[in-house]
Amino acid sequence: MDTKLLSLSSTIDRKLKASTSPAIDTELKDAAQLEQRLATPPSVSFLQRHQVFSKFSKGEAVSEVTTRDLLKKQELEATRRLEGAPPGNIEFIFKGGTTDMALIQVRKLYKDKWWVESFVVEKEKTIGEMRIIGNDTVNFDTQCKLIEIIPLAQKPFVIKKTVALRDEKGEFLGTSITEETHMISTSKIVFETKKGESCNLWIGELVNIGTDTITVQPTNISSTN
Questions:
Q1: Structural domain tally of the chain?
Q2: Which range has the top average pLDDT, 28-37, 53-62, 73-82?
Q3: Alpha carbons 129 and 119: distance in angstroms, whole number
Q4: DSSP secondary structure letter of residue 126
Q5: Could you report the per-residue pLDDT of 145-155, keeping only the tens digit for each?
């Protein structure tokens, strides 16, 4: 038995020593694949609208990025009011959205502090609601209703240019400022106040709500060249 095992082992060793690995011509192929991977940019991964702005059913498990993820961290700011803002204890800013939902940040003056919460608001719904933050219940209700969302609207953009004035001889007389109005594409919403008045609000603009007044602070829409 031992003699047979030794003979079989010797035969296997001879075959292993005599055998050669098959030639694999992969260098050029691997180099071409590597070059293609380095030269080709990664594909774009689009964030689906319904994953960001969507309703949640009870017990629903969602693993993608959702509205709940965006708004999970509650914001609390003890900051001063914006300089130049008119009197009022609540204000909101349009942050963006889709054709049927808008992301709106509401700021509420409560206990001498400005508390900040973000809300995803559907059309015909009130902007803001009650929220429990720590041991406090803060009323973020703006008493304003979202009427319309326009994701792509034309907004005037004013460019101010300085022009040199010269006489017929070409001598410098001074300068003059002229304005050119251009149109840019951006988002806006239309909301209704508690008095039933309709107001336009462009993305980034702030609405300050006083006792009897509602003031929109427009963003800077001018540029100087």
A1: 1
A2: 28-37
A3: 8
A4: B
A5: 999 999 888 88
